[in-house]
């Protein structure tokens, strides 16, 4: 997808999720929503007056279209793991969180134009981006393998894929990973991985659901949402791979907010909120400490 490394790596969501997300984005596109979560009674982290675009409120630019990280629920309220993380950070600063739905390809310009205070939207930390914004790393994005919950076919890691059928979406980092793993299998004297590539991620998942392949490779985030929607149907195997850090972006000249968010993030890790959010959304594999 156009989010380049963000979306191309994550691939697409299950068909029902994609339809729901698309409808939700159309309903909320360009909008700004203040979450009801109350700010901390007394801020844990001091934020100098005048730091935020609007006093008492931190506005996050976010492309709210990516379950389970950011999406709209049936009531058109922003929900997801990143939404909860942003709300938790706001509480540490003693302010309310406001979510401004922003197209991903214009999200950094929106920040620079002070349409928001920070970006939280699975923005990969890349050298070219670090030249124009500062980051507060808060999680990883990664890939994983999914197998049937009833029969894992003996697959416990990528090394067990030799001679097995593995599905993935064409053009993704998972497809490249499978190709490299297949070559390794052959070099080790084992059968190559029987790689089945599909134009849609949903088609690759369907192959596993029907038992036509032994594993399905996708992003951990997509897999987490699939498992949340279809509990007891699938399971993850092996350790997450192709990991890249994701961070909250602030303007280069806004060191006060960058430092405050850094302290706020340290606090929610310390008090257990961070771990609880990742666990709730099946994203413990993306823990920044992992």
TrEMBL record:
Cited SUPFAM superfamilies: Periplasmic binding protein-like II
Keyword Methyltransferase part of the UniProt annotation: no
Signal peptide span: 1-27
Alphabetized Pfam families for the sequence: SBP_bac_3 (PF00497)
Alphabetized Gene3D superfamilies for the sequence: Periplasmic binding protein-like II
Residue ranges annotated for the Solute-binding protein family 3/N-terminal domain, each copy included: 57-285
SMART domains recorded: PBPb (SM00062)
Keywords, alphabetical: Signal
Name the record gives this protein: ABC transporter substrate-binding protein
């Amino acid at each position: 997808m156009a989010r380049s490394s963000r979306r191309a790596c994550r691939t697409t969501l299950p068909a029902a999720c994609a339809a729901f997300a698309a409808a939700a984005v159309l309903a909320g596109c360009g909008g700004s929503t203040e979450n009801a979560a109350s700010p901390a009674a007394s801020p844990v982290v001091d934020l100098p007056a005048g730091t935020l675009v609007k006093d008492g409120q931190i506005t996050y630019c976010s492309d709210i279209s990516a379950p389970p990280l950011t999406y709209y629920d049936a009531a058109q309220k922003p929900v997801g793991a990143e939404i909860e993380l942003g709300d938790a950070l706001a509480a540490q600063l003693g302010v309310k969180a406001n979510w401004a739905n922003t197209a991903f390809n214009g999200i950094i310009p929106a920040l620079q134009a002070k349409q928001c205070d920070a970006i939280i939207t699975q923005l990969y930390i890349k050298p070219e981006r670090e030249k124009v914004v500062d980051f507060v790393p808060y999680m990883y994005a990664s890939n994983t393998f999914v197998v049937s919950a009833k029969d894992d076919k003996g697959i416990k890691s990528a090394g067990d894929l030799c001679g097995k059928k593995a599905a993935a979406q064409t053009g993704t980092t998972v497809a490249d990973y499978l190709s490299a793993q297949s070559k390794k299998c052959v070099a080790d004297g084992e059968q190559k991985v029987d790689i089945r590539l599909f134009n849609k991620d949903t088609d690759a998942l369907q192959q596993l659901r029907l038992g036509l392949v032994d594993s399905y490779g996708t992003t951990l985030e997509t897999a987490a949402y699939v498992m949340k929607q279809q509990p007891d149907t699938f399971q993850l195997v092996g350790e997450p791979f192709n990991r890249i850090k994701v961070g909250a972006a602030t303007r280069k000249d806004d060191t006060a907010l960058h430092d405050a968010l850094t302290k706020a993030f340290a606090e929610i890790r310390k008090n257990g909120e961070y771990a609880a959010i990742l666990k709730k959304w099946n994203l413990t594999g993306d823990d920044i400490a992992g």
